[in-house]
Write a structure and sequence with these properties.
8 strands; mainly alpha; DNA polymerase, domain 1
Length: 377
């Protein structure tokens, strides 16, 4: 029996069917079309999406004839995706295009081939995507899918409900930073037979640079007179276009507009930079940027020499952030030094109060209450 006023009914074969009317240009009359699903809620969602799509398509006859989006010519998701990728290639950073294209080819293109745009809803996407995808990959896939849908909504003047992002567990995972003892161990080793690689580690520990930004540093980025380091570029290893195994090292602009920034340098860092100054273009790579994997390799050797547990290079950036907060730096200033577009990113992912700081505040509070208790007694 059909649900009252919704044109949704359960069929004899167990499936649910939702019907809607459209004007078929070729037949020059109103016709009924259907969407199908396993549950009432699934069909209702499909029906709502389809009605919104059609309602907006026929708002303008000029747009309707321009795109020929008649009911007999259903819009296919992968066709829209190809147009979107072409636009990304023309208007976005090359590294962004390489990343999006790889995600599309590996995780989207085959799974959603020939799927009508109107059927791109949460339930279908969950069904099509592999359960084996890691949380970070799944997040990237949803990001690309929603960008394609947004592009379609603009190009065809239709209303499309964005896909719900998968639940993230990232915030529940503690992000490690080096404690004061570990920092002391590390810095002690860094000052023993100091070289360019050890200076690079110290520079990140004192400035919070990203690995790619460090590897792309040129001597022209250092203002020795005003004691300022300017972040102008980054390097990253990306898959070569047309390949899913071959990679190339690309020098490009920083991660975002906010990533272009100036960072003050301490006298200590300035002295080290003067000591290791050379005539080649890149500070740590010579005639070309340093390979990030080379820096990571040397960092692991330094960790081993320091007697510290093997970890990733990014821990230095998190440790820098924690030290700044513990020393009283305001979050806005820290966010700018890290190159974040939003202070909330800094708060959510880079502020890690240590147990020592928490104990300091608790003891301070206890002292305050103790004084009140003593006065009352």
């Amino acid at each position: 029996m059909a649900r009252h006023g919704e044109n949704i009914r359960k069929r004899k074969d167990g499936r649910w069917e939702g019907r809607y009317r459209v004007y078929n240009v070729q037949k020059e009359k109103q016709v009924y079309c259907s969407v199908y699903g396993k549950t009432y809620d699934e069909v209702r969602e499909k029906l709502t999406t389809k009605k919104n799509l059609l309602k907006n398509q026929f708002k303008s006859n000029e747009r309707m004839y321009e795109y020929k989006t008649f009911i007999s010519e259903e819009i296919v998701f992968t066709e829209i995706a190809q147009h979107w990728l072409k636009q990304v290639k023309e208007k976005r950073k090359h590294s962004t295009y390489i990343k999006y294209n790889l995600i599309y080819q590996k995780h989207i293109e085959e799974s959603f081939k020939n799927i009508p745009l109107s059927q791109m809803i949460d339930s279908l996407v969950k069904e099509k995507l592999s359960d084996s995808l890691s949380e970070s990959v799944r997040k990237s896939v949803y990001c690309v899918l929603n960008q394609i849908l947004k592009y379609a909504s603009i190009q065809y003047a239709i209303t499309i409900v964005p896909l719900k992002k998968p639940n993230s567990e990232i915030n529940n995972k503690p992000i490690k930073v080096l404690c004061k003892r570990e920092q002391k161990q590390l810095i002690t080793i860094l000052y023993q037979k100091m070289d360019l690689f050890k200076m690079a580690v110290l520079l990140v520990l004192f400035t919070g640079l990203r690995l790619g930004e460090l590897c792309a540093l040129k001597w022209t980025d250092i203002d020795f007179e005003n004691k300022v380091l300017t972040v102008n570029r980054t390097v990253q290893r990306l898959y070569s276009e047309g390949y899913q195994t071959k990679t190339i090292l690309i020098e490009t602009t920083p991660k975002s507009a906010h990533s272009r920034r100036e960072i003050p340098l301490s006298d200590l860092l300035l002295e080290l930079l003067i000591k290791f100054h050379h005539e080649k273009k890149y500070i740590f790579g010579g005639d070309k940027p340093m390979e990030p994997r080379t820096m990571q390799h040397h960092f692991k050797k330094i960790l081993k020499e320091s007697g510290l547990t093997d970890t990733n290079f990014h821990i230095l950036r998190h440790t820098f952030s924690t030290n700044c907060i513990e020393d009283g730096m305001d979050v806005k200033s820290l966010s700018e030094m890290l190159g974040h577009s939003d202070v909330q990113i800094t708060l959510n992912y880079y502020v890690h109060p240590s147990m020592d700081i928490k104990r300091k505040y608790i003891n301070s509070l206890s002292t305050f209450y103790g004084q009140i208790y003593g006065q009352a007694g």
